[in-house]
Automatic annotation (TrEMBL):
Organism: Malus baccata
Stated family: Belongs to the glycosyltransferase 1 family. Plant sucrose synthase subfamily.
An example molecular function term from Gene Ontology annotations: sucrose synthase activity
Protein name: sucrose synthase
Pfam families: Glycos_transf_1 (PF00534), GT-B_Sucrose_synth (PF00862), SUS_EPBD (PF24862), SUS_N (PF24861)
Reaction catalysis annotation: an NDP-alpha-D-glucose + D-fructose = a ribonucleoside 5'-diphosphate + sucrose + H(+)
Domain Sucrose synthase first GT-B: residue ranges: 269-368, 369-529
Keywords, ordered alphabetically: Glycosyltransferase, Transferase
Length: 791
């Protein structure tokens, strides 16, 4: 394959493709003739390639054709629309960079076309009349994005806060007066009406600069640990209020950082200064999806990793907020409210309680009600609103706009990329999944929000070969409804990566012998090895000396637990080496109300019979006790086993980091977040869920190597742990997210006009289009469920 170097960044595809086609003119003419043979259709890359293979059947010739620029362009193609005599390509050379060209199969001429034209060709295959209508609704968020600076390098995507700090710095640079917006912002800081940091005495940059110099000298005369209260009154007279620090030393440091910023703004000091400012005290987190509770909910419909993520996130943020507020010298108590649905029929959970304190926190609660109650409980407005998943993000956007508060969104998983052609096919899928509402709600909230928290780079901008989840909202079309020519720009500096971590008190290494929860051993022994089937487990393990390969997930199609069972069933070598234990769903399909789950339960039974797996497999029903689950991972590690996450697509994959933090060598899908969590062959292994033979042989190789070399297993166990310590901890997360909260609160202030313009556009779209669309979604009842769009 040709390298990227063959195409210079300045050249467009329309510039380079004609020459490339000319060089293989004979083969290309035949290839394009083949492509148009079947008439109008959409072709994906694998179809383009396999039809090319039938035309150029000589491998050496094919390699030669694909070896040049042409190969590079073709392999970067995401899809092609065949409209004889033309083939229209959408090409993505780099994450975030798309080009569209129209190639004539007759003379191989190439014409650059716009994204709008590309979408029109595509949608015309589904609804030609609508597509040709000049007056269809076009959504174009780029048109109102007139002043926010954007990134240009694919490699910078996801580092938004770093660039926002740089952009802010340059806005404030130059003359001292340019720093006035910062002074105004500092003057606006308060907690429930009590002024913080500055008062009106210091209302200009020059007054502030002079006062800081004098005050720093004064602070140098005090013992370092002098409490702020000792000089509070004198400070007030000079124009300084509380919030700089708890001691003379910390106050002096913070002042020094601000002096540096005023002298010559630089991103490093700017970032340090904002991380110290008292901006965030009260946070509201929206999570209306599924059953939000602290016990007995995991495994209920729509209730998976998000709930785990949010509860762990609250603990980490409360801890970090408490520390920061103390260091700011304030006595305020932080408050975090998780707002969710109150479910009267709560299935034995606490989801019918209006207010429930969050375990492991002092000041955080779950609230199952809305705005007025929030203002009441917090005794004022929150400082930051965080949305979760489509519904939570939309509600958060509405409330943040209403109250004028900084907003963050967390997708966990966007659904659009999980189902091929889900946009263009929306009419067919809507009765089941309501994707039209979901994709537009996602697009609204990702535009409305001040910053986006993503777990991985791939979530935003994908990888070299696969577009990111957010990136798939750049342009799409819902024929008959609207054409989104610019949905989101992944180069917007609002995108940030802050990955979650495992709860270390629950998922700790198997080798931490003193911490192990021995009280669970009898139950786990029963769960894994007892001989009789019951309502909690099915199947048994004859040879208990073998290591165990383990997987645990909701029993959704996309989780592919049945795929793993089939790979195992087919691979004799693997079956000889290890036993298989899977946790997921339950055994009686008539008890499920979820179509996908029912199908998967039936498939599990069929596979166990088909491959005669009894004696080598243990299927355990969904588990809700996190502490026992932690011990279960560790007991699997005791067998010197491994964790396997075989999903067809996984947005992030909490089980992957939980297993790794228990010291369990981990094999995880290369489709989605796990591809980034694990460095293949170093901290674990990637497996291709679409190539079961290769995946099961990779796992078998690992166990063969571990058999001949005992250190081999240990190496991967330790490297997995190391990876989590370095990159996936809630401490790193909370620190990053609170810094974002502070920085983007100032940023939205600096870009007020732009923000307002966008908000007006969003409101119009929401009121005229979205509200009508939502009316078509039936109110859920307790009837058999539509399969929830997976979480
Ligand atoms: N989980 C669980 N019991 C189960 C299945 C899953 O406790 O039977 C937990 C698992 O430990 C993890 C979360 O649910 O914390 C699943 O999160 P993940 O990100 O892997 O997938 P999601 O369900 O969010 O798609
Ligand atoms: C939703 C998913 O699908 C998972 O991949 C994530 O790990 C989980 O949410 C937490 O963000």
């Amino acid at each position: 394959m040709a390298s990227a170097a063959a195409i210079k960044r300045v050249d467009s595809i329309a510039d380079t493709m004609p020459d490339a086609l000319r060089q293989s003119r004979y083969h290309m003419k035949r290839c394009f003739a083949k492509y148009i043979e079947q008439g109008r259709r959409i072709m994906k890359l694998h179809q383009l390639m396999s039809e090319m293979e039938t035309v150029i059947d000589d491998k050496a010739e094919r390699t030669q054709v694909l070896g040049g620029v042409l190969g590079y362009i073709l392999c970067s193609t995401q899809e092609a629309v065949v409209v004889p005599p033309h083939v229209v390509f959408s090409i993505r050379l780099n994450p975030g960079y798309w080009e569209f060209v129209k190639v004539s199969s007759e003379d191989l001429s190439v014409e650059a076309i716009t994204v709008r034209d590309f979408l029109k060709y595509k949608e015309a295959l589904y609804d030609e009349k609508w597509s040709n209508d000049e007056n269809v609704l076009e959504v174009d968020f780029r048109a109102i994005d007139f002043s926010t600076p954007h990134l240009t390098l694919s490699s910078s995507i996801g580092n938004g806060i770093e660039y926002v700090t740089k952009f802010t710095t340059s806005k404030l640079a130059g003359k001292l007066e340019n720093a006035q917006p910062l002074v105004d912002y500092l003057l606006s800081l308060n907690h429930q009406g009590e002024q913080l940091i500055l008062n009106e005495t210091l209302n200009t940059a020059s007054k502030l600069q002079a006062a800081l110099i004098v005050t720093e000298v004064y602070l140098s005369t005090l013992p370092k640990d002098t409490p702020f209260q000792n000089f509070e009154l004198r400070f007030k007279e000079w124009g300084f209020e509380k919030g700089w620090g708890d001691t003379a030393e910390r106050t002096k440091e913070t002042m020094k950082i601000l002096s540096e910023v005023l002298q010559a703004p630089d991103p490093l000091n700017m970032d340090r200064f904002f991380s110290r400012l008292p901006i965030i005290f009260n946070v509201v987190i929206f999570s209306p999806h599924g059953y939000f509770g602290q016990a007995d909910v995991l495994g209920l419909p729509d209730t998976g990793g998000q709930v785990v993520y949010i509860l762990d996130q609250v603990k980490a943020m409360e801890e970090e907020l408490t520390l920061r507020i103390k260091q700011q010298g304030l006595t305020v108590k932080p408050q975090i409210l998780v707002v969710t649905r109150l479910i009267p029929e709560a299935r034995g959970t606490k989801c019918n309680q209006e207010l429930e304190p969050i375990n492991g926190t002092k000041y955080s609660n779950i609230l199952r009600d809305a705005t007025a109650k929030i203002l009441d409980l917090m005794e004022g407005k929150p400082d930051l609103i965080i949305g979760n998943y489509t519904d939570g993000n939309l509600v958060a956007s509405l409330m943040a706009n209403k109250l004028g508060i900084t907003q963050a969104t967390i997708a966990h998983a966007l659904e659009k990329t999980k189902y091929e052609d889900s946009d263009i096919n929306w009419k067919e899928l809507d009765p089941k999944y309501h994707f039209s509402c979901q994709f537009l709600a996602d697009t609204i909230s990702m535009n409305a929000t001040d910053f986006v928290i993503a777990s991985t780079y791939q979530e935003i901008a994908g990888s070299k070969d696969r577009p990111g989840q957010y990136e798939s909202h750049t342009a799409f079309t819902l024929p008959g409804l609207c054409r989104v020519v610019s949905g989101i720009n992944v180069f917007d500096p609002k995108f940030n990566i802050a990955a979650p971590g495992p709860d270390k008190s629950v998922y700790f290494p198997y080798s931490d012998k003193q911490k192990r929860l021995a009280s669970f051993y009898p139950a786990i022994e029963e769960l894994l090895f007892s001989k009789e089937d019951n309502s909690e487990h099915l199947g048994f393990l004859v040879d208990r000396k073998k290591p165990i390969i383990f997987s645990m997930a909701r029993l959704d199609i996309v989780k592919n637990i049945t795929g793993l069972v089939e790979w195992y069933g087919k691979n004799k070598r693997l079956r000889n080496l290890v036993n298989l234990v899977v946790v997921g769903g339950f055994f009686d399909p008539s008890k499920s109300k979820d179509r996908e789950e029912i199908a998967e339960i039936k498939k599990m039974h069929t596979l166990i019979e088909k491959y005669q797996l009894r004696g080598q497999i243990r299927w355990i029903a969904a588990q809700t006790d996190r502490n026992r689950n932690g011990e279960l991972y560790r007991c699997i590690a005791d067998t010197r086993g491994a964790f396997v996450q075989p999903a067809l697509y996984e947005a992030f994959g909490l089980t992957v980091i939980e297993a790794m933090n228990c010291g369990l060598p981990t094999f995880a899908t290369n489709q989605g977040g796990p591809a980034e969590i694990i460095v293949d062959g170093v901290s674990g292994f990637h497996i291709d869920p679409n190539n079961g033979d290769e995946a099961s042989n990779k796992i078998a190789d690992f166990f063969e190597n571990s058999k001949t070399d005992a250190a081999y297993w240990d190496r991967f166990s330790k490297a997995g742990l190391q990876r989590i310590y370095e990159c996936y901890t809630w401490k790193i997360y909370a620190d990053k997210v609170l810094n974002m909260g502070s920085t983007y609160t100032f940023w939205r202030q600096l870009n007020k006009e732009q923000k307002q313009a966008k908000q007006r556009y969003i409101q119009m779209f929401f009121n005229l289009q979205y509200k009508n669309l939502v009316k078509n979604v039936p109110v859920p009842s307790d009837e058999p469920e539509q399969p929830a769009a997976p979480k």
